[in-house]
Amino acid sequence: MIKVAPSLLAADFARLREEIARITSADMLHLDVMDGHFVPNLTFGPGLIKALRPHSELVFDTHLMISNPGELLEEFAAAGSDIITIHEESTFHSHRLIQRIKDLGCQAGLSLNPGTGLDGLDYLLPDLDLILLMTVNPGFGGQEFIPAMLDKIARLRKIIDASPHQVEIAVDGGINTENLGEVIKAGATVIVSGSAVFGASSPCEVIERYREIASGERC
Ligand code: DX5
Ligand code: ZN
Fold first, then answer.
1. pTM of the prediction?
2. What per-residue string of b and e applies to 165-180 under the rule 16 or more CB within 10 Å gives b?
3. Pocket lined around ligand 1, Cβ cut-off 6 Å
4. How confident is the model over 151-205, as pLDDT tens digits?
5. Looking at residue 53, what DSSP letter applies?
6. If you classify domain 3-218 with CATH, what class do you get?
7. How many other CB atoms are there within 10 angstroms of residue 200's CB atom?
């Protein structure tokens, strides 16, 4: 079974409580944190995550697109994040930060930009819960899926399957009902999706459709 993680970035920011009430059938709420430095856009921080926490039972999946993520891990854990994902490109010390995320009681994720290779992941797999492959360049919702990422997903699937570790492969950016089948066939297990879910008149129908496509690909 896949896990569906609608990205709050595509929600109506003036009505966030109502927006998260539209996706109760999802598995996770994907929270895109941007600092205007690591990526050329700004969104929100731990204060907003903390304010939303009492209004949702979904797994809070916090995606940190920020420089110096190590300086704010405590705040994002205390705000109610269940998963904290940092970018490989944002730190010299991904291994150390992954340990700190685990010590804070959260699951740890590592995200890779489209141009970042898979070398060196073997040494991080024992401690990672999730690897988030960016399938667009981070910073904005509503972009086109980059087709070359299908091969990257498949290569990562092989690396994980050849290891004794259970690590989710999340994909993030440009996912919709048209390309989801290929993405799942390549090996993704967590589907982050913003505009295709929140932009629909019935987000739960899109989530249901994603699950149907996934069960078609797996059987
Ligand atoms: C992009 C974000 C994504 C984005 C996905 O930097 O990390 O989570 O919101 O949105 P869509 O599905 O619209 O590409
Ligand atoms: Zn994201």
1. 0.97
2. eebbbbbbbbbbeebb
3. 7, 9-10, 30, 32, 63, 136, 138-139, 141-143, 172-175, 192-196
4. 999 999 999 999 999 999 999 999 999 999 999 999 999 999 999 999 999 999 9
5. G
6. alpha beta
7. 17
